[in-house]
Amino acid sequence: MVVLVRRAKEALIHVLLLACALVSVATTLGIIVVLVHQSIPLFREVSLWAFLTGSRWAPLLEPRSFGVLPLVAGTVLIAGGALLIAVPVGLCTSIYLSEYAPGWVRQIGKPFLEILAGVPTVVYGYFALVFITPEVLRRLLPQTEIFNGASASIVVGIMIIPTISSLCDDAFRAVPRSLREAAYAVSATKLEVSTRVVLPAAMSGVVAAVLLALARAIGETMAVVLAAGMTPKLTLNPLESIQTMTAYIVQVSLGDTPPYTVEYHSIFGVGLALFAMTLGVNLLAQRVLRRFREQYE
User: Fold this and answer.
1) What is the pTM of this model?
2) pLDDT at 97
């Protein structure tokens, strides 16, 4: 009787876990179906080729144009700038926490660092708008516009530092201690052990952390809306006002655009392109993990 009850409990747990997994899959499929279904009216009016290669985005003004490249360029510019800030800072922080910091410093410092991930993104946006742009960028570069891609890149970079530092720290601490001891046995310094032994051994985790942080930066919304502005422009100048894909979705979702118009359906086309970019980054991260993961005995 006891065995039957135990098996029934195990079967129930199995069903519950399977149901949770299926909910995640069903949610993703539902998002894809909604985006594709709502994007079809847009692509009846605008060819997919014109949508992907057009260099002017003006769906709300006459003459209307639906080239998504300015939004993609703005998104890539801010995400790339954020990585330039977050990768070196996050990597150095994780090396310090895993290789140099005493235990009490790690116990205090890591939770404080991860608090950055809990700060509302709108706070970062206002911080960029009222401090970074007027007090830092415009003092150094007076030609900087009030809304600009540089300030957005800075705050998004600060936002993704906890992602990189936490995941890299876990990857570094997963490296077997025997590798460190072998390096010390041949008179390697702590810096050489950290950069030439631990870092290469944990490279798969580091690359995955960077790619996941990139996906986080691509999908950022409120901080980018407040800091970068809403000017779709195909430019590489971070001092100018630009618009990202998420910022355009927010702009149209405010309710001023009549529903079921081409302009309304354009947000689903942009959302579909954004979903494809984020999915591609996540698939790349998974492939990197499978390809370069080191197995230790």
Assistant:
1) 0.85
2) 87
